[in-house]
Protein 1
Amino acid sequence: MNAFWNSFEALLGLGVDPKDLTFTQISLRGIIVFLVALATVRLGHKRSLSHKTPFDAVLLVILAAVLSRAINGSAAFFATLGGGVVLVLLHRLFAYLAFYSHGFGILVKGKPDVIMRDGQYDFRTMRRNHVSTHDLEEDMRLSAHTDDVSAIRLARIERSGDISFIKK
């Protein structure tokens, strides 16, 4: 068993300075990290890759940053993989808590804002969400299939940043 572990260490370059890693070692690390990340994200949830909210996007950015360290050797290989799993489990826990607590859901995912009501723009809310009239009208044409603002009863900027429209 010790001989197996020693050859495994040599194959992956465990304990080697990052600058001394070979192409093969980095490639094998990349393959392992890819497989572990795939299994970990599947352990999480489908939504974690959907970029539906900043809550989901933050997981992906941090997970990528953490797991890249396992590939390039700048952090301990197995500890880094474990840290990635912990991040996905934390994301899943927060999603679970947000499902059962509306207040917690607003805290981690945000809340939608009404930016148009009965064809009237709410410029203050639009400014706070960095949505121009041009942005709103473009989304209205693309999503609501109209360019007539009077045909819109309600427009919201959703937690994901998408704009939804309810016609009259």
Protein 2
Amino acid sequence: MSAMLEVSGLHVYYGEIHALKGVSFRVSEGEIVTLLGNNGAGKTTTLRTLSGLLAPRGGEVLLDGASILGIPSHRIVLRGITQVPEGRRIFNRLTVIENLDMGAYTRSDPDVAGDMERVFTVFPRLKERRAQVAGTLSGGEQQMLAIGRALMSRPLLLLLDEPSMGLAPMLIQQIFTIITEINEQGTTILLVEQNALQALNVAHRGYVLQTGHVVMTGPSAELREDETVRKAYLGEI
């Protein structure tokens, strides 16, 4: 598999706080790769940097071999990277359809309507609620909408930040099943998720972040069996 995303030596600061300290990893075309780590490890900072919301002080980010550092966020979307942010961040006062339309704001091609129908195929609940104001949806429905909105931009690489946050266990399983389906349909995924077991169950590979450093990497099956990972992130003693 060819490398779609290559991150090397990334240093990111919040003021004087050194949040990422030389982070390096790669995501190959067709993969689901997960970033694991406790709160403050640098996972969300990494995604925000890839989306162009934070400017690193050092390092490189290559998408299909071309640097995307310094490119405005909306142009990064045009290049093929779309993020589903932590907390969903849907447009509460707009309807479901209007939210999905906003996901396609960079597009002028004739296939937008067809892509909306594909989103409704993946998320039948959204089709039932298509005229409903988004702020009145349940938490699970809002997460579906946030992912569907991102898919409307036709991303090559989808960044998911804590998609299971605040959801009931049954809905969490449903969301991860959908993430797998989206990947099988051809979308490469970089996943940040506190539920490490669920993340490792769907991901091909993983990287463990600790206070801004990558401290471990490997295939998901190996990370699931690693004693350190099991104790620190899978809740085993």
Protein 3
Amino acid sequence: MLHHILVVDDDEEVREGILLQLSDTRYTILEAEDGEKAIECLNDNALTVDVIICDVRMPKINGVEAVAYFRREFSGTPVIVLTGFPDLDLAVMFMKEGVVDYLVKPVEKAKLIETVEWAASQRTLFSESGK
């Protein structure tokens, strides 16, 4: 089964790096350069997004605002926060909001794949339970 991952990061190199890290897996990557584009992608896309990987510091709609929107409007879609600026208070807040993991850039390939796999399995559970 093919899964769609939405990668939301204003740094094109980070998006390309994630694409490369996940290229030999079963995931198709959709990209958005900020929260605004991610929201447009989710609202306009006929595809089901199985996992969202989201940066925190971005222009227009930042990661905090975007994650709040994703959790409210797409509550069955697991969200992974990936940031280059770790902040313990922010990490705790995100985890309380239901984010499945809070990763710090650069993330090792094995850790990213493991986290995405786990998150995708949660999406399956959400889907089967009707959430």
